[in-house]
Amino acid sequence: MRLTVFTDYALRVLMYLAVDPERRVTIRDVAEAYRISRNHLMKVVNKLTRAELIEASRGVNGGLMLARPPESITVGEVVRKTEDEIALVECFRPDNQCIITPECALKNVFGEAQTAFLEVLDQYTLADLMTSRTRLAKRLRIPA
After folding, report:
1. Which residue of 46, 53, 83, 87 has the fewest CB atoms within a 10 Å radius of its CB?
2. What is the mean pLDDT of each run of 10 residues along the chain (144 residues)?
């Protein structure tokens, strides 16, 4: 399975916020830390906000924060909420046109693999990714 850059950026945003969950940060902070496009991050942040994984507020005291504790956000949840299509092969898609689908056992094999993949991701939370919080903060140049 291959995840999109969008999901990669979503996980990076969440990890940045999890370094110091009580601190509000800007999209600019995150973009500069990772050296990625602010415009692209705006789309990512918008989706994460709609998915209720982060809170975004405007104004002088505005910024981004996690909507929930890092311990309650699984990597699997993030993947499901940011990937538009997780289908590994055509037969999983609503517009499936494969003529052998009714007789093909490959769908079961890929279905089992996809389920296992997501089950593994569900075992890890955002907090689990923060084992070296201090080093991560230093690498991202997040003020202590």
Report:
1. 46
2. 91 95 92 94 97 92 94 97 83 86 88 93 95 82 75
